[in-house]
Amino acid sequence: MNNEQLTNRREFIKKGTLLGATLAVSPTLFGNVQLGGRPAILGGQGIWENKQWPQWPRWNPETDEKGLLEVMRSGRWVRGTRTNDFEQRWATAIGTKRALTVVNGTSALTTAINSFGIGPGDEVIVPPYTFIATVSAVLFNGAIPVFADIDPETFQIDPKQIEAKITSKTKAILPVHILGLPADMNAIMQIARAHNLVVIEDACQAHLAEYDGKKVGSIGNAGCFSFQNSKNLPIGEGGAITSNDEAFIDRCMSYHNFGLPTGQFTPGQDGMLGNKLRFTEYQAAIGLVMLARLAEETDIRHTHAAYLSSLLKEVPGITPCQLYPEVSRGAYHLYPFRYDPAQFAGLSRDGFLKALRAEGVPCSGGYHPLNTQPFIKASFDSPLFRKAYPSDEIQYERYLERNQCPANDQLCKEAVWLTQNMLLGPRSDMDEIAAAINRIQKNAPKIVKLPA
Description:
By secondary structure, this protein is α/β, with parallel strands linked by helices. The protein is built from 16 helices and 17 strands.
């Protein structure tokens, strides 16, 4: 072997040795992210330490402010042509004949319930896994919310539980497309038809979500939406009611405008008790901007959520939320999954959330059980309910016994949420979210030993 060959051989061995050493300490590939080092909570560098999540709401002064400035400079800020335009476009987007804007999603629910003539002595079936407004809107109208438990696989109200809660006093079902994911509407509508019940869809988190070829908010007798600042169509505050029932929307419009006659609805000689819930022109101007890009953003969220779920289902102890087979698009106002401490060396959910936040991934544990919240007892103790109901019907301890929701109680201990804006970045963000969770799972035996 000559000197040149010897030198080349030594270089080859040297490179091979270095490569072997590199492979020995090389991080594991998870998704498209190399996993290596310690989790941030153990002193390592957070996967998202030097990055920014997509900002929300999105606002581009160059393209978005023209219409808003026109309204502001006009001095015509009360309900007018812009509001009419937004309502027409929202009805078209949802696939209904009509839409009515109101000041917020809570008012949309309250107005819809009132305009179906639901009040004292009536029962409305609701899920326990939802925002407080779903239930408070029922109570505002003097009706009693009856809780039907959820399906933990989908986080949605369970149609089988609905059937068991129907009584002679039941007037409506109020399914919530919670987290922006559609409830099982075919089953719910079948139950409603069999018992002659009204269906009011709480779609406040579900803008442009699709079930069986229809947008949610167009399937039941009415749909209700929120445009609060965090929502997928943000206006700061605002809401809307959608329906194909023209007479119903006219009643809603009258109610939201002091009970004045509107369209087909002409109150009798004594009139009707209305409210003042009117939208403004500058809200409509913002809404028109946000609506123009909503469909594209919804598609991105749905696609990225599906990809993230495909990664997370490979992590022991993480169960992504399932969609019903009829769902063709989820709005994903929130991205949910269930967490099992047993697969994370006994690390509590709070401990997991703390570790994930240390990686730079914002997260929360979601809702607490709504069926046991004290505002329900406060409502039953109010003069309205005490005068409208026999004492045994609003005896709170008996009410709690009749409204137990064990599946929801368990879900509230297991759920983890990510916010919708986190789904709007590049696909690689989903890899890094999943990598952060996987890294925590792999190191859970060490994390669980940290001081509380």
